[in-house]
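Hello K.,

You asked for the raw outputs rather than the summary table, so here they are, unedited. I folded two proteins back to back in the same session to keep the settings identical. This is the first:
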Amino acid sequence: MLLCDAGLFVPALAATACALLSKESAIAMVPVLVFWDAIAGRRAARLARDLLAYGCMIVAWAAIHPGVRALVAHGFQSGATGYVGLEHPERWARYSLRYVATLWNVPVTGVSTRWPSELTPWVGAALAVLVAGMALGRGTRTASSDITSLPSARRLATLGLLLAVPPLLLPTLLVRPWVPYLVALPALGASVLLAIGLRRASLGVAVLTLAVFLVMGVLCRGISLPGELAWTEAVLVDASQAIHRVERNFRTIHPSIPHGAQLLVSVAATGTRGINSTIIDGQAPSIWYDDPTLKSMRPELRGAGFRTDLLFRVTQELDVVEIEPDQTLYRSTASSVSPFDIGRPISTYARGVAASGDVVRSIRILERLARQDQGDLRSYDLRLAAMAAIWKEQRAEAARLVAEAGSMPREAALEQMAKVFGEPTARPDLDSCAYQAFGISTEGAESMRFLMRLYRDMGYVPQAEHFAARLQRIAPGDPGAAEVLRAKGPRR
């Protein structure tokens, strides 16, 4: 904006390109740059040039951005692009009202909003800084005779709206959850609009207005909407505290971890706390232990060639369980551990062991686990072992394991098989052996339809698309498959 105001067109364009490459949301600033000359009242406004130049830059950026390409390929539906997608128009009115209210520090939960008492001392300090700053600035305040030389209120309002409206529209239309902190972007425009109202106000009125605005802003930080997916500050604070608790529990179980170890971490559902993404995507253990050679993976994606394998389970209560899969032993920060929190990680780990080449060990682990499980869980363990045997063309061994697993109703077999494709290994050819191990025909339209619907309802987009495509080959014109594939959008 400074470069644009100085009339340095090419440097301003280059800076905007760098901003876009740094963070996609910078695109919301483009409208004000395009209309800058008109807002500033310059006679030589070059609107056509600016529209063409900034438009070409955005097109070029979109062409090379993998996230934008994925969004277009999926018909602007979320899934491949995480929480970003042009969908659920029924939310747009509600979200727009929420964003506007939050922008002006009006809590959307009204009088029931919790005051964040832990911030009270900081509020006092902030108010002191506000009053002192305004008082110190009083002597240098622009004389009333100079105010008329500033841009008109109309032009300033245009600037404020161009800075505020596009950044408000983007999250309203494109971001699936409600994310209050995104009002940090339109806040630039809101500051300009607020300044218009205060430009002629007395010092007392200005201080009082800004003090109320500050206090209301702190109150907004106490907003909580537990009944829906909304990334409020309360959610982020809870997530921060949760991951610190997990870190403490990891250190309790393992004060140190061998250099170059592979951590296979199974994480229970923890909702908006994001424990799985922090540990796996963020590789948090390598930071906790200050060792970049540590690698964190999901158990089914175990890699070969690491010095040490360590298998962990993070429970819903955020306890950490270390599991010795070959002997089915464990130790935990919790006083008691559910058998599910032991068996599930071992079975997924065994699949990872098979996929990384050690089929014999994988079968041995699963058979030991099966001796401790009962009913469908025992059958599931043995069928996973049979998958590994089928993959290595050990037909007699596979037949023995399937026979020991016993019979299973088709629907139960499909539900069990869905766990395999829901947590795929690095070897799709191994995972595809589930059809034979669970006794499901690859040409059964009803089975493919069941799995497609199951994954669609769970929000597992790639798996739903996979079975929709398979169903479409088996039963061309199936309306359910067509709907799933239509949401997928055209592929490049």
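The second followed immediately with the same parameters:
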Amino acid sequence: MGQVAHQVSVLLVEDEVLISMLVAETLSEHGFTVHEVATADEALRYIESGAAVDVLFTDVNLPGTIDGCQLAERVRARRPELPVVYASGRHDRHSVGRLVPRSVFVAKPYNPDDICTLLARVIDAPHQAEQ
């Protein structure tokens, strides 16, 4: 995959440091701007700061009192059109619970290059229902 057409800002919420580093590095190599956080609380603070975010890419299982599903709901309350991509190695799309509308679920393990393609697709078609 080549560079993304425009600078896309990704908020990456992943508590597993090695996964976060690998995904962030791959996304950056493909032209994305990535802000990494390890908890939903950090992600909410970042969103509330007014920082530019074009897509939320969150793990479902996060430390603390808020998981990735609850994070997506809270972020969507503030930014209703923000594309959301969920990832989980413990759950599948049907067992994870309620996902926000117009979102995508990705099972771990995944190929970070495939995530680049997926993120570019959800940015280009934010109103299109995904998987």
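The first helix runs from residue 17 to 29.

Happy to rerun anything if the numbers look odd on your end.

Regards,
P.
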